Automatic annotation (TrEMBL):
Alphabetical GO biological process terms: phenylalanyl-tRNA aminoacylation
Co-factor(s): Mg(2+)
Gene that encodes it: pheS
Compartments (UniProt record): Cytoplasm
Entry protein name: Phenylalanine--tRNA ligase alpha subunit
PROSITE patterns xrefs: AA_TRNA_LIGASE_II
Presence of the UniProt keyword Protein biosynthesis in the record: yes
Length: 339
């Protein structure tokens, strides 16, 4: 038995010497020390050894196992060291080469404008609220006083998932969801992406960003709306900015208005930027329609409110004097890094 064990050990050591890679050592370990290895088979055959010789044979097998394990570990360490040396040699850095310049990221002009708008309204006590981009037809139209046969629905009745779900055409549904919660008073803005079937050109896109605001409280009047938007315009475009309200129609507000601001390029004198009028249209607004309040569970005899909405891209284009909306989405670093 002693001679047999010695032959097994010598055979294993010879194979270790000729091993050319780490995987070969693993194969040797399995062949001699594994569950079906040669030393394991000898231990399984101990029942054939005389009882008085079993301790001695067992000790010899264990000694052989110890020798093989130590030699395998030495060989493994040798391979590991060799691999490490080759890796270091392969990955050596040539310090004489010029360094690779790292370019820092930059905020998108839309994000810069959005953060400024949010800062202004949060400073006036408003909360920023977001909602789902895939919206129910009820929240996008019905709850905003736009029934199925309303003409105002034609220009927005576009991207439907099914008969009840669509890609929202405005962020007004977020206002309805907040009103339904009944936590009054409300002072909020709702920024986010909206979707309409518009042709892509210098001022239109089928996907753009909108910011809508809502205030609901007791004794809210149109004067509160005018004061709020005047302060917003001054903080966004400069202290000398003035606002002008023109009558308009929106299904979910009554009365409604379009809002113009004095041209911040010429100060209202008239220039190419404002097409000689001295004014630039910026947003739509109005007092929340009583029907909208009723459908959201708010008593219009006790509460009133106002709402407004502005396109984020429009603010960005005006603020930075960009003449083509498509530039915002072309990911041209030469354009983006100017802001």
């Amino acid at each position: 038995m002693q001679e047999k064990l010695k032959a097994i050990v010598n055979e294993a050591l010879e194979k270790m010497k000729s091993a050319e890679k780490l995987d070969s050592l693993n194969d040797i370990k399995v062949a001699y020390l594994g569950k079906k290895g040669e030393l394991t088979e000898i231990l399984k055959s101990m029942k054939e050894v005389a009882p008085e010789d079993r301790p001695k044979v067992g000790q010899m097998v264990n000694d052989a196992r110890t020798v093989l394990e130590e030699k395998l570990e030495e060989a493994r360490q040798g391979f590991v060291q060799k691999i490490k040396e080759e890796q270091i040699k392969r990955e050596t850095i040539d310090v004489t080469l010029p360094a690779r310049k790292k370019f820092m990221g930059h905020r998108h002009p839309n994000n810069i404008a959005l953060e400024e708008v949010e800062r202004i309204f949060v400073g006036m006590g408003y909360e920023v609220v977001e909602g789902p981009e895939i919206e129910y037809d009820y929240y996008n139209f019905e709850a905003l006083n736009i029934p199925a046969n309303h003409p105002a629905k034609d220009e927005q009745d576009t991207f439907y998932v099914n008969s009840n779900l669509l890609l929202r055409t405005q962020t007004s549904p977020v206002q309805v969801r907040v009103m339904e919660q009944g936590n009054l008073p409300i002072r909020m803005i709702a920024p986010g992406r909206v979707f309409r079937s518009d042709e892509v050109d210098a001022t239109h896109s089928p996907c753009f960003n909108q910011i809508e605001g809502l205030v609901i409280d007791k004794n809210i009047t149109f004067a509160d709306l005018k004061g709020t938007l005047a302060e917003f315009a001054k903080q966004l475009f400069g202290e000398e900015t003035k606002v002008k309200f023109r009558p308009h129609h929106f299904p979910f507000t009554e009365p409604s208005a379009e809002v113009d601001v004095t041209c911040f390029k010429c100060g209202g004198k008239g220039c190419r930027f404002c097409k000689g009028s001295g004014w630039i249209e910026i947003l739509g607004c109005g007092m929340v329609h009583p029907n909208v309040l009723k459908m959201s569970g708010i008593d219009p005899d006790e509460y009133t409110g106002f709402a407004f909405g502005v396109g984020l891209e429009r603010i960005t284009l005006l603020k930075y004097e960009i003449d083509d909306m498509r530039l915002l989405y072309e990911n041209d670093i030469r354009f983006l890094k100017q802001f």
